[in-house]
Amino acid sequence: MNEQTSVPNDLDSFWMPFTASRWFKANPRLIAKAKGIHYTTVDGHEVIDGTGGLWCCNAGHGVDRITKAIQDQAARLDFAHSFNQGHPIAFQAASRMVDLADGFDHVFFTNSGSEAVDTALKIALAYHQARGEGQRRILVGRAKAYHGINFGGLSVGGLGLNKGQFGTLYPSAQHMRHTDLPENRFSHGQPEHGAHLADDLQAICDAQGAHTIAAVIAEPVFGAGGVYPPPKGYLERLREICDANGILLIFDEVITGFGRLGTPFASQYFGVKPDMFTAAKGMTNATVPMGGVFTTAAVRDAFLQGPETMPDLFHGYTYSGHPLACAATIATMDVYRDEGIFENCAAMAPVWQDMLHQFDNAPGVHDVRNLGLMGAVHLEQKGAVGDAGRAAYEALWDKGLSVRPAGDSLAMSPPLTLTESEIGQIGDILASVLKP
Ligand SMILES: Cc1ncc(COP(=O)(O)O)c(C=O)c1O
């Protein structure tokens, strides 16, 4: 028996992440292999991967150059740590990272987006302390935000269901409102209304004392919360308020990084530069876990004031800069560059937008949102929140399209290799369920 192409056991030993295990086991969707934009299940059902893994397989699946680079690296140097010693490929990978990010000079490697977020929040706290402003302890996030599932990211996150099981988290977290306004429904790309919602940060400054606020973190485009592009002028206003009050601005680019909007990072797309940003996922095309925090020289240099033998930052992971992940990163960047993956995203974004907005008037559709090659069809609630989303997800899977239900929004973030005809196929499958 080939255990990878059949149901291997009673599926009970693996406690699955973010999964209703009894519901899953009633009708398990088990994927045996993947190539390009397609998954094939253990029973031979072919499904278009409409979510690019989980917003991470930007170059599609099974990219031979990346596979080969990982194999070669495993044979050459499988592992060496980076605590007061190093290995060349981590430095090479870091150079490739900062080359993509104008104005950012350093990257701190992690193994995931959640670790990148918690690392960025800790850097923000320690940065202020290093500069004699250790009273800056408040971290600001937003309602509907997803910043992973570690303690810091959950604290600044704004999805109550993810937090409710865990009680008090980081005690000094504050939240701004989200930017989901009824008047923005069915916007094409960035909505017109809502720049004023950035003033919530000023209100927090006024209520708490601006001198106590360390950082604000924002996804440039809300992702897991349901794909909400920022209102025009919103991110610019956030930057202004941070500058006026000595607050660090962190963008969480875990899903917008590596071309999702057609530029390497969303900050470049919007023309708003944060002080730090997180990335992960597309960093290795999801082949080996890898994330990172990008900082400006101004942020990192604040840590170089102590004795030369003292670590700059008392923080790091055994696998920070893992050789296999670094090999995967370098090969992934080569593929993105040589195959024009980001450029393809920019070219396909208008086609994607038109495809999605054909559902604006479909029965049971509450909203449609899009930017770059990300988007969501938001269904009207039927029964409990999430019931309509789950039903549509199941129907779409059966018809050959995988989407990600976020409540009643069907979130999509396909591989950035998508062609016009593949967008057409996705549109046809969506139509077969949404406009039968
Ligand atoms: C914006 C954002 N931040 C952080 C994370 C967490 O990343 P990971 O699942 O790799 O820990 C995610 C995951 O989707 C994300 O969308």
From TrEMBL:
Transmembrane segments: none annotated. CDD domains: OAT_like. Keywords: Aminotransferase, Pyridoxal phosphate, Transferase. GO terms for molecular function: adenosylmethionine-8-amino-7-oxononanoate transaminase activity; pyridoxal phosphate binding. PROSITE patterns: AA_TRANSFER_CLASS_3 (PS00600). The keyword Transferase applies. InterPro entries: Aminotrans_3, Aminotrans_3_PPA_site, PyrdxlP-dep_Trfase, PyrdxlP-dep_Trfase_major, PyrdxlP-dep_Trfase_small. Its cofactor is pyridoxal 5'-phosphate. GO terms for biological process: biotin biosynthetic process. Belongs to the class-III pyridoxal-phosphate-dependent aminotransferase family. This is Aminotransferase class III-fold pyridoxal phosphate-dependent enzyme. It comes from Harenicola maris. The lineage of its organism: Bacteria, Pseudomonadati, Pseudomonadota, Alphaproteobacteria, Rhodobacterales.
